[in-house]
Amino acid sequence: MARAGNRTSRRTTEGMGRAPNRAMLRAVGFHDDDFDRPMIGVASLFSDITPCNAHLDRLARHACEGIRAAGGVPQVFGAPTASDGIMMGHQGMRYSLVSREVIADSLEIVAGGMNHDGLLALGGCDKNMPGCVMAMARLNIPSVFVYGGSILPGTGPDGADIDIVSIFEAVGQYQAGKLDEKGVHQIECEACPGAGSCGGMYTANTMSSAIEAMGMSLPYDASFPAVSAAKERETFLAGKALVRLIAKNIRPRDIITRHSLENAYTLVLALGGSTNAVLHLMAIAREAEVQWTLADFDRLGGKVPHLADLKPGGRYVMNDLHRAGGTPAVLKALLEAGFLHGDCLTCTGATLADNLKDVESIYQRKQDVVRPLNKPMHGTGHLVILKGNLAPDGAVAKVAGLLTRRLTGPAKVFDGEEACFEAIQKRAIKAGDVVVIRGEGPVGGPGMREMLSVTAALVGQGLGDKIGLITDGRFSGGTHGLVVGHVAPEAWVGGPIALLTNGDTITIDADAKTVTVALNDAELQRRRTSFVLPPPREKRGVLAKYARCVGSASEGAVTS
Asked: What is the pLDDT of residues 185-237, one digit of tens each?
């Protein structure tokens, strides 16, 4: 390996003064010639906390084999993960978005402190993907991300495919008297049949797809199933690819550009991805020092059709897309239709167009997972940026599969998710209501909890297309319905959502891209004069630190 291969790690290993450093590295297996090779950090977010990450230790070994085969020296280290699905519906969910920042910080600390020449990261659960890529953009050393892959679907009592959202919605069906305890238990036991991330186009599959389109992972990374030899082979090849990137000194900020971010969000829109993509892509852009705002999401949303019939708004899961040709087949169709920038550099060392040169378009295959361009699920993007007197700085709505795109109704205001869930259990939410959950923003939560327990319970009660919901918190990628999240400014810093009272008339209009309350400026100002900023919810620990440092959801909810 040429000396350029260890251009960064030589700070740690070169010269007489670094003999103590080398002594410690010899104790973990380094040989004389290893000090002339690129030293590569392999960040494994393995954990048996969640099925999303339970197999990553096995994949990490394949990554190390690929690095060794190409002439590099791998160093495996861990980083924390937290399970969104398991933390959902209780106080633990406050740690979810916080974990994105902690993951980014952890990778930066280890790879930066060790002077690694490159970084390969393996992640599974929702915040793993953006957290890892944020660290890569900060460090700006050659990097490749490997997604752990999607879980296979479970089998429901009637033989139909089920997944994690099926059991959340089963709870709502139970509350509505539509399903008995035995039925819930059957779905509970089959919803997650093994390793891998949640199967629909929820946040994990959304962000892995975005990162592949962005060029920071190898082709097919997002769509290869977790439990497959294909995923193991891909991980080995990712290790080899990273050593080539180091030799060529191709770094994340060469790959993450305005055009590659457009490619990433274009695929999110085409696949019907999660609202969380807005937060995470903005955060990645910030770390890469690329100018990107809510207006960019809105601009792309106005021209990219929603094509994939994937859950939660559709019928299929990621494994079905894999069998139909995978993410590259969709990218090839989008490239041929003029929606992508084919000249963007990727972690293969080639351009996106070069990577797709021999790929068969999804439209050349017999499948119905991805609709034809002239018969889309929806003609424009399923994610809509809303503004109005309730969200002056913006909010995000997911309109995939909506029967109702505009709703005006009385506000049912709840301070926190628990109060709302209790009201749902009591059947206090009625058709036509606009549910307001506040105090769940980045600062107020702290941590911007997802509301899947609430939205899934409402769907289970048959209210999914009959009510509206707005919050300064977030929604899971598994959420569907007329729901508006990321309302900014948030309640805890005095945003208009803090001034609402029960019975106020709220209008959500997905087509007009507005979320408003029928109050004039004078009335809002009158209410504001009596509003007192609440004290921090947390006084110490990581949540308190996060609340002090975090910015607005309209800017990606990043810490600084």
From this structure: 999 999 999 999 999 999 999 999 999 999 999 999 999 999 999 999 999 99
Question: Which segments of 505-553 are extended strands (E)?
Answer: 505-509, 514-517
Per-residue pLDDT tens for 131-140? 999 999 999 9
DSSP type of residue 148 = -
Place of tokens 């990097």: 143
Kindly tell me if the per-residue pLDDT of 160 is higher than 90.
Answer: no
The per-residue pLDDT for range 447-487, each reduced to its tens digit, is 999 887 888 888 888 888 899 999 999 987 666 678 999 99
Q: What is the dihedral of CA 93, 94, 100, 102, to 10 degrees?
A: -120
- Nearest to residue 458, comparing CAs of 432, 486, 440? 432
- Identify which of 328, 306, 543 has the alpha carbon closest to the alpha carbon of residue 401: 306
pLDDT tens across 422-433, in order? 999 999 999 999
Secondary structure of residue 318 in the 3-state scheme: helix
> Tokens representing 36?
């002339």
Task: Please name the residue that has the structure tokens 């998710």.
Answer: 417
Q: What is the DSSP string of 475-489?
A: --TT--SEEEEEEES
- Give this prediction's pTM: 0.94
Q: Known catalytic residues?
A: 476
Which token pair is 109?
Answer: 């600390």
CA angle 5, 241, 119 (to 5 degrees): 65
d(CA 352, CA 219): 9
